Amino acid sequence: MSEPVLFEVVIAAPADTVWHALRDRSEVRRWFGWDYDGIDDEIEMIFFGDAAVDDGARTIDFGPYGRLALEERGDQTVVSFVRAAPAGQDSWEGIYDDVNEGWLTFTQQLRFMLERHPNDNRETVHIPLTGDPWFETENQVGVINDGRLIIRTPERVIMSRYG
């Protein structure tokens, strides 16, 4: 079964910095998910529990939930997310999936933290979507509003702000 690349996000940071943000618990807490009481347990389970980590290749394999891979390109890093298509399908085209969309959201939050707020703590709340374009896919739109990253999916709006 093939594993198509579902998205690539280019982050203006060296691969060592991006990898550190993916492997250090306190750094993951600064960009992953949103604020709620169970976030530390979720981070532990997803990133440090069952995930297969290859530090040399800079990959994190979440089994049936996909794989993140880093590729260094000078002073930038490409973060790719790959995941096998659903049973009986050749691709994810036209299929909405919370896991796929979640990883896109989280990777954009990682990018925003590293590029715009590398030394700040974050607060995440849900708000309406308005602002300057940041990214757009079939199922998500991200904008910058008053220094905050706001992402709208079909089911939620997520806002990240720092400082």
Give me a quick take on this structure.
With 163 residues, this protein is an alpha+beta fold. 28% of the residues lie in helices and 32% in strands.
Q: Could you characterize what this model shows?
A:
It is a single chain. The protein has helices spanning 15-23, 25-31, 39-48, 98-116, and strands spanning 5-11, 52-54, 59-61, 67-73, 76-82, 122-125, 132-136, 141-145, 148-152, 157-162. By secondary structure, the chain is α+β, with helices and mostly antiparallel strands. The chain has a single domain (5-120), classed as Alpha-D-Glucose-1,6-Bisphosphate, Chain A, domain 4. A 5-stranded antiparallel β-sheet has the order 1-5-4-3-2, with helices on one face. Helix 1 crosses helix 2 (25-31). The radius of gyration is 15 Å and the shape is globular.
* Biggest sheet overview: 5 strands, antiparallel
User: What is the helix/strand order?
Assistant: EHHHEEEEHEEEEE
| Spatial gap, N to C terminus | 44 Å
Beta-strand level of the residues, as a percent range? 25-35%
Q: What is the CATH architecture term?
A: 2-Layer Sandwich
**Count of runs of 4 or more consecutive helical residues:** 4
Question: Would you tell me which CATH topology applies?
Answer: Alpha-D-Glucose-1,6-Bisphosphate, Chain A, domain 4
Compute the number of strand runs.
10
Determine the structural class based on helices, strands and strand pairing: alpha+beta
CATH level 1 name: Alpha Beta
Poorly predicted segments: none
Give, in spatial order, the strands making up the sheet with the most strands.
Answer: 1-5-4-3-2
